[in-house]
Amino acid sequence: MDFVEKELQCSECGATFAFTVEEQEFFKSRGYTNEPKRCPTCREARRANRYDSGRGSGYSSRREMYPVVCAQCGAETQVPFQPRNDRPVYCSDCYRKIRLNR
Description:
With about 100 residues, the protein is an alpha+beta fold.
């Protein structure tokens, strides 16, 4: 299928932007069926905002953390979930070691 560069309007800022042949090929290779709704500038700002709030790179800094003592090594740490008394909780190092041994 031959792609042709298209002019689209950003749903965020209203600016017109080019949806290049290269971008269309990339979208197709990833299985995307919709055209982008935002211009590259607004996409980047949205992506940066998502990562700054923690949604894309681990846990959000706003997420409540709970202090616990690791059941393996006794180190004090924090976890992003409410611990239950019937389940052991591990620090990230001990958890990683336990997972590797499974």
